[in-house]
Amino acid sequence: MKFLSPAISKLARLRLWLIELWTAEPVAAQREVLQDLITAAQYTEFGRQYKFNLLFSLKTFKSTVPVHEYDDLKPYIERMMQGEENILWNTPISWFAKSSGTTSDKSKFIPISQESLEENHYQGAKDVLTMYYKNFPDSDLLTGKGLVIGGSHQVNKVNEDIQYGDLSAVLMQNSPVWSNWIRTPELSIALMDEWESKIEQLAAATIHEDVSSMSGVPTWTLVLIKRLLEISGKEYLHEVWPNLELYIHGGVSFVPYKEQFRKLIGKEINYLEMYNASEGFFAAQENPDDEGMLLFTAHGIFYEFMPVEEYGKKFPDTVGLDKVKINKNYALVISTTGGLWRYIVGDTVKFTSVNPYKLKVSGRLKHYINAFGEEIIVDNTDRAVSIACEKTGAVVNDYTAAPVYFSDNSNGAHEWLVEFEKEPSDLGLFTFELDTALKSLNSDYEAKRYKDIALRMPVLHSLKKGVFSAWLKSKGKLGGQHKIPRLSNDRDFLTEILAFNE
Q1: pTM reported for the whole predicted model
Q2: Quick one: how many helices (H) and strands (E) in the chain?
Q3: Three-state secondary structure along 158-225?
Q4: Mind listing the pLDDT tens digit for each residue in 37-66?
Q5: Pairwise CA distance, residues 41 & 36, whole Å
Q6: 442-453, pLDDT tens digit by residue?
Q7: Is the dihedral of CA 84, 89, 95, 100 positive or negative?
Q8: Beta-sheet strands, E only, within 186-328
């Protein structure tokens, strides 16, 4: 099949002029997107409520339509899930992407319209391929198979017309027929929900395929790679898939994983980061040598950028693309063809370039752990600690938690430092109850913990009293409003605090 590579490369690069068009005029592209969104939705219930027919500028749009979080739009979305039409968007919506929840809910359900599939998710995927072939015109990428590793792929029916599932399941179920020719495994395996069996079947189905690319969350990809090496008896993945040339990743920071991938693959391949969420496909690396991801400005999403210090204000200020500054932390605010209006995604981003507009994900608006795609927030852990205390009779003064990353011999975990006022009689039972509560509160954590495939049981340390205070004092932050950071996506705080416990 490699004899087809030159023709495929030429065909893929024919679309370069489209990318160059919106890259050259990104502000104009965004202006057009906003006008198209407002025009399309002006006769929806939401559009009538906020008088979309009178919104002729970004200024009036911002002054008329409030900034929303998921809980603000939830009443509209719940009605849409029951089949009501013309609520947030003007075309029927039969798919919803399920993702990790908010303070008040275990899961969010993001509307996925036909427009958001075609003009955003699939258009973004095509642009990623085009940019890749621009950088690597001699690539054999599409003469092999692309292995797609998502999260939980179970599809659930609300009724005969409405379904929901993990974003990757929604995309696979709606993808064009031709995509099956270049993708592995077959849909029946890709959509399996039971991960222990799924890993086995993924390995069995792909071990003899000519896999040229992998895409997915690093956590699950590592689990599969290790299983493939066990089954094959090979030392390196390139011995199983000699034509592997690309790994596409996103969802969590790849920094802690990259060295493990290099060791397990055993040869240099290309790595590309994509910024793709249930809410939309926002950006992707144009060049593997540049960490900045090119913002997709003509893909059915209008972007605003909220300085993080504005978050939580009644009337937070946002800036458009033409006003952003390099290296400043912004919360991403979007309006989409799925009916999300001035919606706070929850991520923070920093621009690395404004010509063209490139950014990187800098974190979340709130303290969190998302090292494995679990998206644990402080509200989850606060409530879980409370439940564990109630179950065991313990009293907790303070705590912090951070990830323990994958190693050659063990899966990832969360490591907890807890200072008890009253210790539980059985620390193991407290850890068990904490873990059980977290699984009940957060569906993504529950999925990663299933049978210890991606995340094992939390590692918990009971600290001597006064350790947290000693650490704060060393930072000159003792007293006042200074608090222990409850959650962190790296181990810096945790390592420092542990040193005070010795």
Answers
A1: 0.79
A2: 19, 20
A3: CCCCCEEECHHHHHHHHCCHHHHHHEECCHHHHCCCCHHHHHHHHHHHHCCCCEEEEEECHHHHHHHH
A4: 999 999 999 999 999 999 989 999 999 999
A5: 9
A6: 999 999 999 998
A7: negative
A8: 211-216, 246-249, 270-277, 280-285, 293-295, 301-307
Q: Give me the residue spans of the domains in the chain.
A: 368-499
Tell me if 491 sits within 8 A of 412, measured CB to CB: no
Q: Tokens 């896999």 label which residue?
A: 211
Give the Cα separation of 195 and 1 in Å (integer): 32
Could you tell me how far CA 293 lies from the centroid of its own chain? 14
Give which of 361, 346, 467, 487 is closest to 414, Cα–Cα: 487
In three-state secondary structure terms, 463 is coil
Judging by DSSP bridges, how do beta strands 301-307 and 329-336 pair with one another? antiparallel
Q: Write a three-state SS string for 103-150.
A: CCCCEEEEEECHHHHHHHHHHHHHHHHHHHHHHCCCCCHHHCEEEEEC
CB count within 10 Å of CB 402 equals 22
* 60 close to 54: Cβ distance less than 8 angstroms: yes
Which one, of 330, 271, 269, 256, lies nearest residue 295 by Cα?
330
Bridge partners of 435, per DSSP, are none
**Are the CB atoms for 401 and 497 separated by under 8 Å?**
no
